[in-house]
Amino acid sequence: MRVFIAGVDGYLGWPLAMYLTKRGHTVAGADNYMRRDWVQEMSSQSASPISRMTDRLEAFRDNFDRNMRFFKGDLTNYNFVENAFRSFKPDAVVHLGEMPSAPYSMIDVEHTTWTQVNNIVGTLNILYAMRDICPESHLVKLGTMGEYGTPNIDIPEGFFEIEYRGRKDRLPFPRQAGSWYHQTKVHDSNNVMFACRIWGLRSTDIMQGVVFGTRIDEMGDDQRLLTRFDFDQCFGTAINRFCCQAVIGEPITPFGKGGQRRGFLPLRDSMQCLTIAVENPPAKGEYRVFNQFQEVYGITELAEMVHRVAASLGIDSEIRNVENPRKEMEEHYYNPDHRHLFDLGYEPTTDVESEIAVMLNDLRNWHDRIEARREVLMPDVRWDGRREKVTYIDPAEKRGKIRAV
Ligand code: USQ
Fold first, then answer.
1. pLDDT per residue over 86-98, tens digit each?
2. Which residue among 235, 237, 274, 326 has the greatest number of ligand 1 atoms within 8 angstroms of its CB, and so is best to mutate?
3. What is the reported pTM?
4. Ramachandran region, residue 203 (left: φ > 0; alpha: ψ -120 to 50; beta: rest)
């Protein structure tokens, strides 16, 4: 298949290009390197030393014996998207090209409005270009489990049967996102669903959980193929940050009570799941939703797991809860379905504990790069609009709170 990856320079996009190529697909990618700029704006850098795109493409050729076509440009520019699709003629478009950080979107009005315009306009441009240039192609759109929020009932995969005043229907499950960023994914979902209905496009909307991990096997030992790995408050996800904290001897920081539950997925399994979606397109006009995660864990459980695995590798770490800069439920019910991908053959390749060991070993090699930006670990972007570093919760208070969970 000819697969176009929007956002090919990112944490998921770059490894996905390799993973798909290894499976015989022809891959092209687009990016405008914004992720590199955002992380720099946070005064941070990738823990893994990533290469420039020209070096990445050369390494790609050396390792896979094929060229990957690369289009540099901005998805909010319709002409760019149209020309890229005309020239590459994709069978599938994997859309990873959005601003992915909840805290970044909460900084101030400029960051909020920019995030909303960037994400929503980029997706609309892709939908229009698909309609006009490749209407038979399949859009694999990266959404987020965060679209659903944390309702006090089970979460189905996108739709549920509901009976109301004696009548029944199959309707989209309510979305209650927790940040302006997560809201952009909700708006995208509505727009993609509408485009499938009116234009007969086909799409898989992926509600992905929190991804973690430093590598996939396809990278081999070639350092030029490394994907990025962020640990700052905006672009680092929970376990990734916890591992970096452990490696440089900073406390591991569950926010608030640490009873938040989320679906988690190793990077390797994210690649496998996105590929399953690409290789099993829905029918024309169909809009389907996959909940994409391996297992649900509580944040404290994960912090304890990182602490335990680190100890087994001779790394001494401590867990210290900090004030929660977000407005979110810190104890809640969470039981999302995730059957579709398993039905299509998803087989988890690793368990969280083993993957954490792999990560810690990699991160030890990049110790100095994390150490050099140690100050970016403590968050100061708060959901109430204040920009003020959080502080550690008093240990006695913390113990009381954890017992209550
Ligand atoms: N958290 C901590 N301590 C930290 C960092 C995070 O306790 O140092 C907590 C947060 O409060 C939250 C949970 O961990 O309850 C997850 O936070 P996160 O920063 O790992 O993930 P999130 O902001 O939800 O966003 C990430 C990706 C985003 C994706 C989302 C999937 O950045 O692109 O959409 O995961 S999900 O979480 O299912 O919405």
1. 999 999 999 999 9
2. 237
3. 0.96
4. beta
CATH 3.40.50.720 fits 2-212+265-294, yes or no: yes
Q: CA torsion, points 78, 81, 84, 89, in degrees to nearest 10?
A: -110
Buried b (16+ CB within 10 A) or exposed e, 88-104: bebbbbbbbbbbbbbbb
Query: Given this model, what pLDDT does residue 303 score?
Result: 98
* Binding pocket residue ranges, ligand 1, CB within 6 Å: 100-102, 144-146, 209-210, 237-238, 241, 253-255, 260, 262-263, 299, 326, 328
Q: Domain map of the chain by residue range?
A: 2-212+265-294
Confidence of residue 404 (pLDDT cuts 50, 70, 90): very low
Residue 396 has pLDDT above 60, yes or no: no
Region 235-263 average pLDDT: 97
Q: Which atom of ligand 1 is nearest to the CA of 146?
A: 39
CB atoms within 10 A of CB 332: 14
Q: What is the mean pLDDT of residues 221-236?
A: 98
* pLDDT exceeds 80 at position 400: no
Question: Mind giving me the DSSP string for 338-403?
Answer: --HHHHTT------HHHHHHHHHHHHHHTHHHHHTTGGGSS--B-TTS-B----BPPHHHHHHHHH
User: Would you say 251 and 245 are in contact if contact means Cβ atoms under 8 Å apart?
Assistant: yes
DSSP 50: P
Query: Any idea which residues carry the catalytic annotation?
Result: 144, 181, 185
HSE-CB for 173 with a 13 A CA cutoff: 25
Residues 265-286: tens digit of each pLDDT: 999 999 999 999 999 999 999 9
Sheet holding 295-298, edge to edge: 210-212, 261-266, 295-298
